[in-house]
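User: Show me a protein chain along with its predicted structure.
Assistant: Here is one chain, sequence first, then structure tokens.
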Amino acid sequence: MGSFLGYAVISLGAGALYVFVAAGVLLIHRGSGVLNLGQGALVMFAAYLFHEAGDGWGLPTALAAAVVIVLTGAVALLFHAAVLRPMRHAAPLNRVVATLGLLIVLQAAVVLAFGGQSRSVPSFLPQSVVEVFGKPVGVHVFVRLGVVVALVAGLWAFFRYTTAGAVTTAVAEGPAAAATLGWSADAVAGACWFGGGVLAGIAGVLLAPLQNPLSSTSLVLLVVPALAVALAAGFRSFPLALVGGLLLALVELQLQVHLTGPHDWAQGLDSALPVVVIVVLLVARGSGIPDRAHQAEDRPPLGSGAINLPVLVGGFALLVALVWLVLPDPWVNAVAIQSGYALILLSLVVLVGYAGQLSLAQSALAGIAALVAGRLVAAESWPFAAALAIGVLATTAVGVLFALPALRTRGLQLAVVTLGLGVTVSAILFQRGYSSPPADGQSSSIFGDVLDQQGTVVATADAPLHFLGIPVDRTDDPRAYATLALIFLLLAGLAVSAVRRGRAGRRLIAVRTNERAAASLGISVFAAKIYAFALSAAIAGLGGVLLAFADRNISYDDGDFLPFTGILVVAYAVVGGVGYISGAPIGALLAPATLGQQLAGWLSDRFGGSTALPRIVGAVLAGLFGYGLGGLARGQVERSRRASSARWARWLPAGALVVLAVLGVLFGDRLTDWLREIDRYLPLIGGIILLLVLIRSGGTGLAGGLAGRARLPLPASVGARLGRPTAAATLGGPALASAPVIVAVPTVAVPTVAAPRPDESAVPPSDTPSAADSAQPQVARVAQEALLALEPLRVRPATLTVEGITVRWGGVVAVDGVGFEVAPGTVVGLIGPNGAGKTTIVDAITGYAATAAGAVRVGETRLDGLRAHRRVRAGVSRSFQNLELFEDLTVAENLRAASDPRDLAAYVTGLVWPGNRPLSAPARAAVREFGLADALDTQVSALSYGRRRLVAIARAVATAPSVLLLDEPAAGLDEHESAELAALVRRLADEWGIAVLLIEHDMPFVMGVCDRLVVLEFGRKIAEGVPADIQADPAVIAAYLGSPDEPAADGAADDQAESDTETAPADDPPARDAVEADKPVAVADAAVSDDSPEDDSPEEEIVADGGGARDQTAGAAAGDVAAGDAAAGDDLPAQGVTVDEVTADAVVVQDEPAGDVADGGGPTEDGAVVAEASAGDPVNGSGPPADGSADNGPADNGSAGNGPAGNGPAGNGPAKNGSAGDGKDGAAVAAPVGEAAAVPPVAGGAR
């Protein structure tokens, strides 16, 4: 016991170091929301700078420490201001990759400035020793521990008790909301980055001597145990970080003393401990499919994977000819090395680009394949071809193991896991000595001898390397080896291209874009992730073997397979273009010993005989770099919107160009030396380019930029000369004219018409393009079938039966014993206030939420226990409230992703041939039904909001479901669009035979479409019946529809996320943009019907949007419009305003004294007063809303906007007079001014 306690005390020093690094990670994350993977690099920078300040500069210790701490904080602050601030709207994953750029730049700069050799930093703390529990312990350990405890206590108190601490947390969680309170998110984030840098500086000064002799790589990788500690602390709690760091160091020391020390076979297992902690915590806290709160992240753009076969064959033949006939041996060797690195980068295209899974362990996977193949050749005398195959297969299996944490983690967390796995593999496998052939009298082990560092000999002069009997030894036959490497790169590129264009690629991209949506289409998210990791590992392993066998004696502990190389290859891939196949060879130019280095050497030789030329070239290069930096600075200044700064900002690019050009002239004579030693500068150059690419293009990369320029649209005349038909020309005018078109119409009561159907006669046979003509765009191949498939598709009929399901979130019962049935060919509406549990029921039916009780059946098939994608295959499909489309794909690819066969064979056959088939019959019928023929080749992100709504439903229908669940399909649509959608929904039930379950807050839409209604309140069913009975049910009126005598009760906060829906007129682009961005819209005009009769009842407010009656008021639009801002009607004026004139197009409102206007209101351009009252606050002294809720609750008087108003709760609730019952015999009835205009029942409505 005494020995254990003694070692526990000794471990306090290392524990303090872990806590310091973890505290910096926590501080930066809490203040800026960024996971800083470069925190260890900041500690490394401080340690080396402190050594130089004392020994090199001769500064006193105290002054040197102060300078180092401040400079380290300044470096962190500069990184935030120069890199992260311009990226504040970038995806979180891109910001994490930017911290990898910080790591690369600092590590490369330290190596260049201070050399790569180890250094020892002297400690200025007391060196006396005391005996504790029988173990000698330095007093400095207790001093360091005391400093750490004091700093952790201070940080905890700061965040716990100070306003600044609360603001820091608030800014990271909601920067926009904090900005409305006057807090600058940039200033707070910058302060936290400076604080994190200061903590790293203190760690470098006080704690780095514990790591003597210093190693830049080991200090950089301190971030791995620090991340384990931060995860244990939930990235929030500083006290938990203190406890976790000390415990982690204690367990590591115990493993070193009792396991790895006495046993050589256990070497490196102590390094695996932080990774085990990380994986266990993330897997325990993660989920197979993210919940509704998960926000899909933007990803780098993707290439199409298309191949120009003549160009490819000609280019490859030319390159091989250059290798054999023109290039000298050094350039040929560079071709081989570049091919190996390009394969590793290509593996990242599959994993990061297509599947969206960030891996920092690709160099480790490459090393595993090289290790297996090398040991089989050296120790077991296997032929090279067989050893290569086994090495790749072994790495594929390891890739599957690496994929297991990805099944429950994603994004930033997965990056942490893979970084730790790379460190662990290196410590356990690559730090051993692998001796071959064995010395005389000794036996060789395939696992290696820790004490023997001779390496792995795979070829000699007497036994050169052969591949299938062909000599390919790089020493004797460099051209043969380079050709072999090029062939492997070509084959791998063709395989990845086929995957991108085929069913497997669509599955990967669907998972990358949105895992929930992918599962809703029957795609197995688990299978897609495992496949991506396996294929990526195989390609990386192939590249690793080619890199390793380029030398006859393989050393696994050098640069090619180290953890830091795993970070570098990610940087190279991002620079090249991680979403593009061509980005792999482009990014590989930055790797050492490749063509990039040879080109730099060639330039150095050209400059060697001249003194003026290097200065000229240096001035040009420096000037161009300065112009780019000046442009970045100008953009930042102009975005600050300060007029005084903007005036001089336009001179920044030219000024930076001149300054750096002058520096290029002054120091240009050193350009020759720099080019000759370019390999030393490549990591630094790569890190800088990585940051510039992330800032300027968001990670598109060089290949993406080139592809973007190649895809610039051509004028129509030029396109016609080149024979490129447009979509309109391909489809033919009549075909396009027959497709449904959604147009903006005045928001008045209009007669409903069924959505137009394509007419078979509208497409003359002579004008129809041949489906077999593969040269035509995809829309040309599909439109013919889509437009001529007039017979409705009948799905397999099945009844959805929900039997008493209960869903619990912790101690909250979100759904309590709800049951109902949806028969084939019927539409059942699920309505109720927000928080009633509607979307939770859909999640439970489709497998996204676990049920605590009850059962769900489709026909005779019980769905309980099935995963989400298997429920889709059983016949259940759904749409999402927030669309959840695959924005990176075209409309046709979205439909293919839904209708593709779900065979596992596609993952194998897709490597050889994409295997694309014509759109399935359900998909073609969906194209016809929703009028999408003219948009098949259009990227989803380019469509209007209403069209994207249709694509989302069409994608769900393309799975040919027996049961279709629609979650607020009419959200954001105007009355005309809603009427067309209503007709489509009825046709899906009547003609397709689908059982439709509909969630919608638009009461006219619901009452006109549904056969039966189920009403929920607080997770319980309170009514079920036909629409007429539901409208008259007192319980429903009191709970949701609203009564004239008392305010309706608002529901609790929606389970997890049922967001407000804001409706804007279709002809108002700013309003439409705001709807898509989920922002409030200020409405200047509110159109009303000019024939509206006067209303003698008390004043009614206009309903801007609908929790229950959306778009019911003529001309009402989304926005924070408080009661009284746009009211009209009888001689009772609205609160604080008077009605001057009412026309069919506008309500003209005259301002009354400011004291009578709702708080925050003000005159708009057209004189209307728009109030932005905060949720829960009374307006003009009126009483608080029922239940104090302002979220989508039903309002007695139809109060408008998202703030409370008048006598009812704010926002988006159904108005008293907004029900569909106001119509007579299906005819449109214009509402009185101040009341909601009723949308008439649609054709084929409730029967």
